[in-house]
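2024-03-11 09:14:02 INFO worker-7 job=invfold-0412 stage=load source=structure_tokens
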């Protein structure tokens, strides 16, 4: 049955990363459940191209760009205020600190429910630390706060967010897209020999994802496995440093930094072993995608990863332990992984994620009606 309200998702985006993938998967999955949604994208003044609205429109998602010329722009608030004022019944769903602030101010005195998703706050700079505290302060005032990993509860509790408002909604992926047996992308595209053993990672090249640790571990693997090659899909500020580390270790010829790519289902099909070397995480989509695609897994015990992998035949190591990561990579070669896909299909599908969010929207809307009455 169609809901009587529309959900306005608000996101300020710097590119297409994990949170964006969650949003792009969620909105189409909500439609069959009768939840009408629109994605409101705050413009990023530093980006030459606005990747999120372009991708959303290509997927057929109802999308609106909201002008934004800086960290705090009254025109942005007013533009969103006009949009939601035109809606007779609306729930706001915010996905980052800026969208949280803009939506809170745009709502004004109207009793519009606000749902926030914490996709994982990692404060690597002083300014991000400040924004993180601002977002936590706002979350105390919101109707529901959704988290993607259970260990986020402690952060919210310390910030004074009412535990009764918090909901754990684990990320979900399209399990019909990421399946074993997909025709892999051509090995020639990455200059791979037919008999190469491919270790793969899909990540942004940032301190959090630990690309230098991955290179250090792969140098040990390369010394043990003659045909080993490392393919890293992704880009970021540490690209140059990653290539320099590979050169310093004498393994440049066996490392491919592939940049951002489409058709990830065909790239996972190329990997013999998927590696997640992160120093900290929430619930990484790339892990779920690789599991669903049938890859063997080596991952660090960070964030929600141990919960996802509990009891499964894969390798988990301590974050930052290069030797353990290298040993795990070597031991994972040839490891069968059917149980990993079964776990994702059972617990981490985009359909399950959409049902959970639909329940939250319905809950806050009914609570609002009771308050109004």
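2024-03-11 09:14:09 INFO worker-7 stage=emit residues=373
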């Amino acid at each position: 049955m169609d809901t009587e309200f529309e959900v306005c998702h608000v996101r300020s985006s710097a590119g297409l990363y994990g949170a964006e993938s969650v949003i792009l998967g969620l909105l189409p999955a909500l439609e069959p459940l009768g939840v009408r949604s629109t994605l409101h994208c705050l413009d990023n003044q530093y980006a030459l191209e606005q990747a999120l609205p372009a991708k959303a429109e290509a997927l057929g998602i109802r999308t609106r760009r909201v002008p934004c010329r800086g960290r705090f722009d009254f025109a942005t608030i007013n533009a969103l205020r006009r949009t939601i004022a035109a809606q007779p019944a609306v729930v706001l769903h915010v996905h980052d600190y800026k969208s949280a602030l803009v939506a809170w101010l745009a709502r004004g005195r109207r009793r519009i429910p606000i749902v926030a998703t914490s996709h994982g706050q990692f404060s690597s700079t002083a300014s991000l630390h400040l924004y993180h505290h601002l977002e936590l302060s706002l979350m105390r005032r919101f109707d529901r706060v959704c988290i993607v990993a259970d260990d986020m509860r402690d952060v919210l509790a310390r910030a004074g967010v009412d535990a009764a408002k918090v909901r754990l909604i684990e990320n979900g992926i399209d399990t019909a897209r990421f399946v074993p047996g997909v025709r892999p992308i051509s090995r020639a595209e990455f200059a791979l020999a037919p008999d190469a053993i491919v270790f793969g990672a899909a990540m942004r090249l940032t301190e959090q994802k630990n690309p230098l640790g991955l290179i250090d571990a792969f140098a040990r693997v390369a010394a043990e496995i003659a045909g080993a090659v490392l393919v890293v899909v992704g880009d970021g500020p540490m690209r140059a440093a990653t290539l320099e580390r590979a050169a310093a270790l004498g393994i440049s010829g066996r490392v491919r930094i592939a940049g951002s790519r489409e058709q990830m289902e065909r790239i996972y099909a190329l990997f013999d072993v998927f590696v997640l070397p992160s120093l900290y995480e929430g619930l990484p989509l790339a892990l779920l995608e690789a599991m669903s695609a049938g890859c063997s897994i080596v991952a660090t015990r960070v964030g929600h990863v141990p919960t996802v992998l509990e009891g499964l035949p894969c390798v988990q190591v301590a974050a930052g332990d290069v030797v353990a990561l290298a040993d795990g990579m070597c031991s994972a070669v040839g490891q069968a992984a059917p149980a990993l896909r079964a776990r994702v299909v059972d617990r981490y599908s985009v359909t399950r994620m959409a049902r959970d969010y639909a329940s939250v929207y319905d809950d806050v809307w009914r609570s609002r009606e009771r308050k109004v009455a």
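2024-03-11 09:14:09 INFO worker-7 stage=report msg="The chain has 14 helices and 13 strands."
2024-03-11 09:14:10 INFO worker-7 job finished
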